[in-house]
Design a protein that fits this description.
With 337 residues, this protein is α+β, with helices and mostly antiparallel strands. The chain has 14 helices and six strands.
Length: 337
């Protein structure tokens, strides 16, 4: 039933076909190995997997290993994920399997990430990345399971493609913020060139991300993260010169200033950036997902417990929309300031 449900989705069926066609057959290709049932709980706890999910993942391990099609897909996903480790934009982006695929389908991306652990940890060691940064970066997986249960009421991993970045050496947690090694897109490249920075589309930059459940977004916490990043990237990625930091988020929608005081953490975060809202397509689902946990919640049912909840809900109830803001600022690595 699992694979009947998966193959019934045309996009997933095409993805499975591409995975099979691109899978390397050369000797010495990376192997997909899962810890045994005795060791698996320790590995899951290192990834901050919630306790309520641990027993299910351990129990389903046998089901996965007894399913020839599942183990074959596990191997293809792991090889796609760890191939070209650390190269920007080269890793496989995992896909979520349908909720109807059952617990094995919902948890399947977690097994892929667990099997990829030895490869990403080896890459971190080669780069000299401190163990505590490696651990906190990869432990973000636990947040993905919390968000899945919060939204759907059952175990699984939300947005597995996002966590692919962590396990491909492209994203790191440094204090309150996450930093993604990426390249300038056309929009940012044009804006930065106009501002006098000698950067063009395709050159290195850092994308900032603001994870849930990581404490208040205070100016002090952001300053600390940026200070860590200024030391981290020149040391561990010396051939990449990052002189700009970008952010693409509904938190950069300038409309928030209509509802939040000037000294609020979100407004002060916005003021770090040169912001544009060039995308005219509404992104109402983003604040619904990140503030209330579900992008499909009816607007009339949204609670008004906090200032941010009131801002998001009242704005939508008034018939208006939220947009994704795009911002940048100059990023000066340590020693260049």
């Amino acid at each position: 039933m699992l694979w009947d449900v998966v193959r019934a989705d045309e996009r997933l069926a095409e993805w499975l076909k591409e995975l099979e066609e691109n899978d390397e057959e050369a000797p010495g290709r990376p192997r997909a190995w899962l810890p045994g049932a005795e060791e698996l709980p320790d590995v899951l706890q290192d990834l901050a997997v919630p306790y309520e999910d641990v027993n299910d993942l351990v129990a389903l391990r046998r089901t996965l290993m007894d399913d020839e099609e599942a183990t074959a897909l596990l191997g293809r996903c792991v090889r796609g994920l760890v191939r070209d480790m650390g190269k920007i934009g080269k890793g496989l982006r995992l896909r979520p399997l349908p909720l109807e695929s059952g617990s094995l389908g919902r948890y399947f991306p977690v097994y892929v990430l667990v099997a990829a652990l030895p490869y990403v940890r080896a890459y971190h060691r080669e780069r000299g990345i401190p163990e505590d940064i490696s651990r906190r970066t990869l432990a973000d997986v636990g947040r993905g399971l919390v968000l899945h249960r919060r939204r759907y009421g059952v175990g699984g991993l939300v947005a597995p493609g996002w966590f692919s970045l962590h396990f491909h050496g492209e994203l790191f947690q440094l204090g309150r913020l996450q930093f993604q090694r990426t390249r300038l897109g056309g929009r940012e490249g044009v804006a930065l060139a106009a501002a006098g920075l000698a950067l063009r589309p395709g050159e290195h930059c850092l994308d900032l991300h603001i994870p849930d459940y990581a404490g208040p977004l205070t100016p002090e916490a952001c300053d600390r993260s940026l200070a860590l990043a200024r030391e981290f990237f020149p040391r561990h990625f010396p051939t990449e010169r990052h002189t700009a930091a970008c952010c693409h988020s509904w938190l950069l929608d300038p409309q928030l200033k209509r509802y939040l005081p000037a000294d609020s953490n979100i407004v002060r975060f916005q003021e770090r950036f040169h912001i544009t809202c060039g995308n005219s397509e509404p992104k109402d689902g983003l604040p619904l997902r990140f503030v209330f946990g579900d992008p499909d919640l009816p607007v009339e049912t949204l609670p008004r417990r906090t200032r941010l909840e009131r801002a998001v809900g009242d704005h939508l109830r008034a018939g208006e929309h939220w947009y994704s803001g795009h911002g940048w600022f100059r990023f000066t690595p340590s020693g260049e300031g």
